Amino acid sequence: MTDRSLFNLATVRGSRLLSLSLCVAMLSACAVGPDYQRPQTAEIAQYKEAEGWRQANPSDSLARGAWWELYGDQQLNVLIEKLNSSNQTVAQSEAQYRQAQALVRSARGAFYPSVDLSLGKTRSSQGTGSSSSSLSSSSSGIRDTYNAQLGVSWEADVWGKLRRGLEADEASAQASFADLAAMRLSQQSELVQNYLQLRVIDQQKRLLEATVAAYERSLRMTENQYRAGVSGRDAVAQAQTQLKSTQADLVDLIWQRAQFENAIAVLTGEAPANFSIAESQTIPNLPQVPLSLPSQLLERRPDIASAERSVIAANANIGVAKAAYYPDLTLSLSGGYSSSTSNNLISLPNRFWSVGPQLSLPLFDGGIRSAEVDRTEAAYDQTVAKYRQTVLDGFREVENYLVQLKVYADEAAVRQEALDAARDSLRLTENQYKAGLIAYIDVVVVQATALSNERSVLNILQNRLIASVQLIAALGGGWDGQLDVSDKR
Predict the structure, then answer these.
(1) For 349-399, how does the pLDDT look when each residue is reduced to its tens digit (9 = 90+)?
(2) CATH number of the domain within which 202 lies
(3) Number of separate domains in the chain
(4) Which is it for the CA torsion 75, 81, 86, 92, positive or negative?
(5) In what order do the strands lie in the sheet with 328-339?
(6) Residues near 388 by Cβ (< 8 Å), separated by ≥ 6?
(7) Which one of 9, 170, 228, 302 is separated from 50 by 20 to 30 angstroms, measured CA to CA?
(8) What pLDDT is stored for residue 378 in this prediction?
(9) First to last CA, the chain
């Protein structure tokens, strides 16, 4: 048979194999393993503390927006932007997401044929048949072979193993993206809470400084009265004790503020030694929670989205494991040139080729495939339970923060009334002491009560600010439910 006839025969066979592969591709429209269905979770008609809620359906494609701008503090906005670009914990999650994206591209590449090119030289020797002749002429059987070969191989996805693998990798990448969003939201929430507490400490510091100044005036007045014989030495001692205790409280605020400042530095990717936040005269605004919160806000929580996408990946992995029971079909085609010399290697007489399909089916594996199916099914059950628990945790957190904000608001009103009464009582008591009607110990008691109420009002404001941040984070980041059409893959 001539070279042209051989070439024509190879072309015909190659066409038949191509037709066979197309038929296989059409027949492989379905894949083994279960198709994904969202697991059932606990259902609620509405939250106890808010109306208009329903069961969560993960939807983290909803935009979160710049929720920190609700607090109306420009320096806080700058710090958040710095966190978004320089936080190292977020950078780790972003790198993990890029790894997951690379796995998806790798899984997609498995659908295409692989093409290999090899060039090489082989030196071989074969004995002549007798040991004596081999010893006398050891180099007579040495032979050089030059090869240039191009090979094409393609695995037909008959049973959907590759498609299930891609489905699992895509779901894992989406879960990784949700993990990235969850980590970014967590770091943003932590920074905002630290910043708000730092600003409340600034206000407490101003309060204590003003109180120390008032106590110093009281001490001087008491000392003057003592020298004039109007009051006793015990009044001076009481005034000094009250002044020093308040000064100690003021000193204690310094390290508390430093801790929050250092935490913010790390969150923004800075060394604490190179970072500082100047004191402010104001406390950021307390955002007002809308009376009617959209029900889809909880659905965009990134941890819920990540948990559900992990379920999708686990479900697809069951299909991958079950596909191992079926044979693998590989179509391969190779050809090239081989010669004992490098001269005229690329010529028709030196040409060779091969083409053909290959079926591979393990007949006995000691239960490995069955065990893998059982493992993937158990892993699926685990991810379903985790998903359901994540949804329940989301319900619990929002309930807690809603009732917390409600109780804190009621408490703030009562404490403000107590503060107003304490201020009025202090004014009357100081006037009575100046008129010599009461002892200084009575003034000390009222002053301590007034200061305690001043600090309590600031503490409840701090608690309300922190609870508002926690509610925003529990809702997935704010309560602005505009759609985000950006690509997440």
Answers:
(1) 778 888 888 888 888 888 999 999 999 999 999 999 999 899 888 888 888
(2) 1.20.1600.10
(3) 1
(4) positive
(5) 114-125, 142-156, 328-339, 351-360
(6) 39, 41, 42
(7) 302
(8) 95
(9) 55
